[in-house]
Every structure is written in C-alpha cells, then in structure tokens.
C-alpha cells in the first residue's frame, strides 16, 4: 500500500488508473481535519487526526473508490452537557465517473427535476473525476455525518440535569427538591407555630 502525497488532504491522483480498466492501487494516509466534520453537537473537530485507507479501481465508467475513515469524534452529551468522545469508523464506496460518461448519463436520464420537487437530479448525485484527480471530501463528510449519533449521550442511562437547579443528577442520585403546589403555598406558613403562638405559651 502506498502513501498519499497530495497537498489537498482529500484529493487523490488517479493518473496511473485512468482509462486502464482492471488496474488498481491502494492508498493509506492520515490527515488533520481542516474543518469540523459533523454537527454542532458532535463531530471530528478541527485538527483531529483522520486515518484514511482507500482502494482505487479503474472501471469503464471511471474510478471506483472504496475506503475507510477512522477518527475520534468529540462533543457534548445532550442530557447532561458533559464532554464525550466516540471512536468512529466509517466505510464508503463511490464511483467517480469520467466527465464524458457523466454527461452522457445525464443526457440519457433526461432533464433535471423541476424546481421545488424533492427528487434530486442524477447530476447532483454523481461524482466526476476532475482531470486525473478525485476529491473524497464530500464522500467522507457524508459518511461521517450519517454515522454520528443524532443525540449523543455520555451513557445510555444518563439521567441528565435537574430541571430546577441544573445539577448533574449522575453526581447525586438522591438529588431532589421539596416542591409545594402553589395552590397550597398560602397554607404553608400555618403548618408551624407563629411568634404569637409562642408568646401565648
């Protein structure tokens, strides 16, 4: 397996494979994420190492990229707001078509869907080789975002925070507040002796 030497971290050179169906090469490299990959709640943070392994296969339509990205995602628990980390491993496989193949496919598939419809066009879904280069950034980003938990928690049974004072309930399982129904609050003062009662005694 050869190393990756492109200056653009997600871009790989396919010049050895272009127009040579059946040929293949494998790449492995590590990059520092140039920007957040994920959501505001959890994701691969800027500068976090991402380990990439990719197999490139030349086919008639273009180059098929099959790979794995490994990294540590970090964020906060949505229940108690504590920091958390999660080891992440995502797989992906995408065909990067030759420009003329993509254009032909688009022509055969027909015109784009009308504005306002929910059906994406083939052009939007298809990746295309740019010269001899293919850019994996969007492929990796989509795979990571899909794999990340929608609502990450530090543990499955995290009790969260107290709704009254914000205390972390996991730190004090017996935490509670004596809450008086406001309809009876006027009677609360009558429960104990008053100063006048003590003077009479």
> What is the terminal separation in angstroms?
94 Å
* Major sheet size, sense and barrel closure: 8 strands, mixed
Mean pLDDT: 80
Element pattern in H and E: EEEEEEEEHHEEHHH
Number of helices: 5
Integer-rounded radius of gyration: 29 Å
In percent, how much strand structure appears in the residues? 25-35%
Low-pLDDT residue intervals, each spanning 5 or more residues: 112-123
Q: Could you give the count of β-strands?
A: 10
Shape: rod-shaped
When the domains are counted, the total is: 2
Write the layout of secondary structure elements.
Layout: E1 2-3, E2 11-13, E3 24-32, E4 37-38, E5 42-44, E6 49-58, E7 62-76, E8 83-97, H1 99-109, H2 122-125, E9 127-128, E10 133-135, H3 137-147, H4 185-188, H5 195-200
Characterization of this structure:
This protein has 201 residues and is α+β, with helices and mostly antiparallel strands. The protein folds into two domains: 2-147, no CATH class; 169-200, no CATH class. It has helices at residues 99-109, 122-125, 137-147, 185-188, 195-200; strands at 2-3, 11-13, 24-32, 37-38, 42-44, 49-58, 62-76, 83-97, 127-128, 133-135. The strands form two sheets. Strands 1, 3, 4, 5, 6, 7, 8 and 9 form an eight-stranded mixed beta sheet that branches. The chain has a two-stranded antiparallel ribbon with strand order 2-10. A hairpin with a 3-residue loop joins strand 6 and strand 7 (62-76). The longest helix is centred in the middle third of the chain and has 11 residues, at 99-109. The N and C termini lie far apart (94 Å). Mean pLDDT is 80; it is low at 112-123.
